[in-house]
Each structure stands twice: as structure tokens, then as C-alpha cells.
């Protein structure tokens, strides 16, 4: 339950109000089940919470993925462009070593 709340906090605005309410409802169900002695209820509510949280997390990360990929590629390209001329001016051997380090996998 704590991890689910922390995940919601970490995702912030990436989670819709409906999804947030659903996760919070499942968290409360788990907490209520923990107050009792029924282990089957605890297991069932925990699994339901995990399924909902997985779905919500996946949707949030997929929604932010295009934005994240674009900014990562842009910053990597910007740092490569600014680094290459400086190293090229320093020594040709250093430039060759940098090319080996920048090899994309």
C-alpha cells in the first residue's frame, strides 16, 4: 500500500484523476483487509492493487515516453556537437578515442 502511494506521488500529473482514484480505492481495500484475519482477502486485494498499479504506471510511462525520448536524444546530440570540435582542435588521437566511447549500442 505504501509503495502504491509513493508511486502515485512519483508519477504526479502523469496519472489521470480516474486512475488515481482507482488506485487509492484499492489501497484502502488492502488496508481494510490487513485489519482483519482473512489472509485470502489480503492476498486478493493486494493482487488487485498490483494489477491496477501496473496498468496505471504503464499508461503513465507510455504517455511520457515520446517526450522523454526526444529530450534525451536532443541533449545527447547537443553535447556531442559541442564536444567534438573542442576535442578535434586538441588532438586527432583524442578524437578517435572519443568516437570509440560514443559508439551507440
Provide the number of structural domains. 1
Considering DSSP H and I runs of 4 or more, what fraction of the residues is helical?
over 70%
Structural class: mainly alpha
Radius of gyration: 23 Å
Task: Calculate the terminal CA-CA distance, rounded to whole Å.
Answer: 38 Å
Architecture per CATH nomenclature, i.e. the level-2 architecture: Up-down Bundle
Query: What's the level 1 CATH class?
Result: Mainly Alpha
Tell me the total number of β-strands.
Answer: 0
Report the major sheet: none
Number of helices: 4
Order of helices and strands: HHHH
CATH topology: Substrate Binding Domain Of Dnak, Chain:A, Domain 2
The amount of beta strand, in percent, is under 5%
Shape: elongated
User: Which residues form runs of ≥5 with pLDDT under 50?
Assistant: 68-94
**Average pLDDT figure:** 72
What do you see in this structure?
There is one protein chain. This protein has 105 residues and is an all-alpha fold. The chain has a single domain, classed as Substrate Binding Domain Of Dnak, Chain:A, Domain 2, CATH 1.20.1270.10. 87% of the residues lie in helices and 0% in strands. It has four helices and no strands. Helix 3 (39-90) runs antiparallel to helix 4. 12% of the residues are buried.
Amino acid at each position: 500500500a505504501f509503495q502504491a502511494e509513493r508511486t502515485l506521488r512519483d508519477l504526479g500529473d502523469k496519472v489521470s484523476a480516474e486512475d488515481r482514484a482507482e488506485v487509492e480505492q484499492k489501497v484502502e481495500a488492502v488496508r481494510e483487509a490487513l485489519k482483519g484475519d482473512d489472509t485470502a482477502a489480503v492476498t486478493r486485494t493486494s493482487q488487485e492493487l498490483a494489477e491496477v498499479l501496473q496498468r496505471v504506471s504503464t499508461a503513465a510511462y507510455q504517455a511520457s515516453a515520446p517526450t522523454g525520448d526526444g529530450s534525451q536524444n536532443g541533449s545527447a546530440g547537443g553535447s556531442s556537437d559541442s564536444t567534438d570540435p573542442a576535442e578535434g582542435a586538441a588532438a586527432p588521437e583524442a578524437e578517435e578515442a572519443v568516437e570509440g566511447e560514443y559508439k551507440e549500442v
